[in-house]
Each structure stands twice: as C-alpha cells, then as structure tokens.
Design goal:
By secondary structure, this protein is of the alpha+beta class. The protein has a single domain, classed as Lipocalin (Beta Barrel), CATH 2.40.128.120. It is 20% helix and 56% strand. The protein has one helix and nine strands. It has one helix at 2-26, and strands spanning 31-39, 42-44, 47-53, 56-63, 67-76, 79-85, 91-100, 103-110, 115-122. The protein has an eight-stranded antiparallel beta barrel. A hairpin with a 2-residue loop joins β3 (47-53) and β4 (56-63). Mean pLDDT is 86; it is low at 4-13 and 17-25.
Length: 124
C-alpha cells in the first residue's frame, strides 16, 4: 500500500514538469505569420515576422495601411506580447497565446482608442 502511494505522489509531481516542457516547446514563435486583425470596421491582414530568442521577441509588422514597422516584445510560457509603435504616435499592443505550433490568437489594444481580436497562422 505504501509503495502504491509513493508511486502515485511521484507521478503527480512529475506531471506539471512534463506539461511545462511541452509549453516551452509549443511557444517557439520564430517564423512568418499571416495575421487577421478583426475590428468592428473590418478585418486587416498584416504579415508579422517573429524572431524568438529565449523570452525575447522581435520582428516586423507589415500592412498595406501602415507599411513596415519593427517591434520588440516578450514571451512567457505560451503567452506573448509585442508593441507596434505607429508613425502617428499610437501604440498597438498585441497580447496573445499560442494555440498550437502553427496558430496564435489574442487581443490588440489600439492605444486606448479601441480594441480588436486577432488570429495568426504560421506561413508554410
């Protein structure tokens, strides 16, 4: 009986560590992404290039309306954030989560002037 209890406790303690390893593997965001930013005025389709080094994120955001803008951000587990500073002084703050290796989703704050949701699919 005691051996069974010890084995159950050991298995329970090992489970969170294995989930943590899976999350780290899942959150490699490096690549080119097709985003869909859904606002009440329609959907924008920027291209987002991400480069992840540890918990640091950098990249570029390119859309027909705003052109090409470089940004910096961070990653923690399966969550990420980055800020796109537009030429007009607005800051677009993207906060997202990794759905799987090729999909992300989240919300965008338009510098206190509204918000939107977004999804992203890694370009193959």
């Amino acid at each position: 009986m005691r051996r069974t209890s010890v084995a159950i406790v050991a298995a329970a303690l090992a489970l969170p560590a294995s989930l943590l390893v899976a999350q780290r593997t899942l959150a490699d965001l490096t690549g080119t992404w097709n985003f869909a930013v859904v606002t009440e005025n329609g959907t924008g389709t920027p291209t987002v290039v991400l480069k992840q080094q540890g918990d640091s994120l950098s990249g570029s955001y390119e859309s027909a309306r705003m052109g090409l803008i470089n940004f910096k951000g961070s990653v923690k587990g399966n969550a990420f954030t980055f800020v796109v500073n537009t030429g007009g002084g607005a800051a677009l703050t993207f906060k997202g989560t990794v759905v799987d290796a090729d999909h992300v989703k989240g919300d965008v704050d338009f510098g206190g002037q509204g918000s939107a949701s977004f999804t992203g699919e890694r370009r193959k």
